[in-house]
Write a structure and sequence with these properties.
mainly alpha, two-stranded antiparallel ribbon, globular, binds zinc ion
C-alpha cells in the first residue's frame, strides 16, 4: 500500500542521516539534533549572564522567593540533564518569562499580576522548563544548520527570544529566533505534566491562559507584548491545553 510521506518527515529523515536525531522526553517526538547538551548550555549561560548584567533584578524578596520555590519544585520533577537551576525575578512590567539552556529561568514582575497564585506561576515556569526538557533551542539551531539558513550567524535560539532581545543587545549578538507554534504547544503539554507531578493542579494552566487572553484583549490587538506574539493564539492554545489536562490529571496527586 502506498503511503504519502510528508515532506517534513522526509527532511527530518534526511537531516537525521546527515546529523543526529533525538527523542523528546515526555512526548516521544523525534527531533533533529546536531548540538550537544554542553554546547547548548554554554550558549545559554553566556546569554543569561549578559542579560543579567543589563536588567535589574527585583528587590521584592517575597515574590522572588515564591518564584524560586515554585521553580525548584518543578525542576525537581523535570528531566533536564546537567541543569544548574536558577530562577530570577526581573524588574520589568512586560508580562513575560523565558528560559535558556543550562537551567536559567527569568520571570518578569509584570507577569505576576496575571499569574495571581502559585499554580499560575507554575504554569509559566512549567512551560519554560518544558522548552528546556524538549531542547527546543538546540532543535531550532539544528534545523537552521541543516537548512543552511543563517550561515555565519553566531547562532543560538532561545525561548521567548524577544525577552532577551529587547533593548539589551544580546539578541543581536546571538541571532535569536522565535519558537514555532508546535514547540509552544509541546511546551504546554510537558508543562502540564510537570505541574501535576510537582503538586500543582494542571487545570490551572487553562485558567492562566484565559486570564492572559483577557489581558491581551484589554490591551488591544496592537499590543507588541513578546510573550503574546511568540505564543500561539489564545483560543487554539486553550483548546489544546484542555486536551492535555486529562493526561496530566492522571499524575496529579490530590
Ligand atoms: Zn514558550
Amino acid at each position: 500500500m502506498k503511503r504519502w510521506f510528508p515532506l517534513g518527515m522526509a527532511l527530518l529523515v534526511l537531516g537525521c542521516l546527515i546529523t543526529n536525531c533525538a527523542v523528546v522526553p515526555e512526548t516521544g517526538r523525534r527531533q533533529l539534533m546536531s548540538m550537544s547538551v554542553q554546547e547548548e548550555a554554554q550558549l545559554g549561560l553566556q546569554a543569561f549572564q549578559q542579560y543579567r548584567k543589563q536588567k535589574p533584578v527585583s528587590q521584592n524578596t517575597r515574590l522572588a522567593n515564591r518564584v524560586r520555590q515554585v521553580g525548584r519544585r518543578l525542576a525537581a520533577v523535570s528531566q533536564v540533564p546537567g541543569a544548574q537551576w536558577e530562577f530570577v525575578l526581573f524588574e520589568d512590567n512586560e508580562p513575560n518569562a523565558f528560559a535558556v539552556p543550562g537551567g536559567k529561568v527569568g520571570v518578569n514582575t509584570g507577569i505576576m499580576r496575571i499569574a495571581q497564585d502559585d499554580a499560575g506561576l507554575a504554569t509559566i515556569i512549567g512551560h519554560e522548563i518544558a522548552h528546556l526538557t524538549a531542547r527546543h533551542a538546540a532543535e531550532r539551531l539544528s534545523q537552521k544548520r541543516v537548512a543552511q539558513v543563517g550561515a555565519g550567524i553566531v547562532g543560538a535560539v532561545f525561548p521567548e527570544a524577544n525577552a532577551l532581545n529587547t533593548g539589551v543587545g544580546v539578541g543581536a549578538q546571538l541571532g535569536l529566533l522565535r519558537f514555532s507554534r508546535a514547540h509552544e504547544l509541546e511546551a504546554d503539554q510537558i508543562g502540564t505534566l510537570l505541574m501535576a507531578r510537582a503538586g500543582y493542579d494542571p487545570r490551572e494552566a487553562v485558567a492562566f491562559w484565559q486570564r492572559f487572553a483577557a489581558y491581551k484583549q484589554q490591551k488591544g490587538s496592537g499590543s507588541s507584548l513578546e510573550f503574546l506574539s511568540t505564543h500561539p493564539l489564545a483560543t487554539r492554545r486553550i483548546a489544546a491545553l484542555q486536551a492535555f489536562v486529562p493526561n496530566a490529571m492522571n499524575e496529579y496527586r490530590l
